[in-house]
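Write out the 3D structure for:
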Amino acid sequence: MTHATKNKEIFGESFLLESSKAENLYFGYAKDMPVIDYHNHLEPDVISGNRNFRSPTAIWLDGDHYKWRAMRNFGIEEKFISGNAGDEEKFRKWAETVPYTLRNPLFHWSHLELKNPFGITEYLSGNNSGAIYAKMDEALQSDTFRPQQLLQQFSVEALCTTDDPADSLEFHQTLKKSGCTIGVFPAFRPDAYIAFTDAEAYRKNIRKLEKTAGTGIRSASDLLEALQSRISYFHDHGARISDHGFEFFPDTTRWNGTLDHEFREFLNGDRALFSDPEALTGHLLKELCKMYAAKGWVQQFHIGATRNNNSGMLHRIGANTGYDAIGESYFAQRMSVMFDALNAEDRLAKSVIYTLNPTLNEVLATMAGNFNEEGIRGKIQFGAAWWFLDQLDGMEKQMNAVSNLGLISTFIGMLTDSRSFLSFSRHEYFRRLLCNMFGSEMERGLIPDDEKWVGRTIQDICYHNTKNYFGF
């Protein structure tokens, strides 16, 4: 197959594809593979309700902390970002910012999102923001731009939301009964119940879990029983994945009888504070990992974000609003201790480990090779470039680390980790980069000039490895 073209514009068919071999790999093998997005933050009720979005701002800017950070960097007033300005005003301010995002991945992502699915192939700026807003708004009123239909346009076969253990999963159930052709599966995210800095907020979370689980929680063992019941509930409703987010990996060896007694007093209100939350987190995490293994789940660990750095804005507009950063904590040894203990008991589940700090790429790539198992390809995965790193340089560095220190051929590929229904264009972005990397090395004679051989590997990374690994 040959799909050469001289059109190298951002909207051209050869975007990111710098050789005919890269083009052939992308158009012949990668482009039309289905998407399995195994970690995102889409809202199940929005997917289930399947109602039209109120405006381009609602689908494109609301809650998008990537775009919010860029607008703040450009000096835009907060009322046009997270504030009470009107939708068209917010859109116009973003449009004015876009020309100044050159060399930031937002420049690529934003224009790819305009092209697919809206068919808009002109650069966005303050000059044309009104016309582009109107075109997007008109499209969003049609049936083909409802949430489920958008997912179909992006060839999404399955996705995993991120869900609180106390969630009823009612919208997942509704989706399953509705005959929706896209697999929408819950993922178990228990961070609020195993890690805390604010004692009162934590007790409030525990009360919520008590109500949902239908049991009193007066000790660490009670808490684990409640979480076990929710794991079983999630499993019965399609969950096969857990997820954890840590600034640093907890010490899983410190728990003891004294701390257990103190935690009982803390839960029962006899003690205002608990002295060692990290030891609690480590203990609960290790026990949860055993539960995941018993269910045959995949466990994910997202590590390295320093969150909520701007305390003033945290109090003003809340968490997950664009004030997080890359952390610098080293955690590999603690992770290795836990993995080794679980592995010794034959209770280590499939695991995907992510770092937000690229200086630890090689560390985690080698960690992933320590606990593999017969009959499972890539049991421990060094996960895709995440958050601040899912841009060209970050993705290439992550894949080079996997290639050099493991087997890129068993890699489970890309995810969005996003709250936006338009972010699935990042799968296209990843696939174009992947094909360009392989195509370039074919051109240079570093890997075989065998399109079918290399093409099969490309398809495995884009789709087959993921489907086999998670068992959707």
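The two ends are 31 Å apart (CA to CA).
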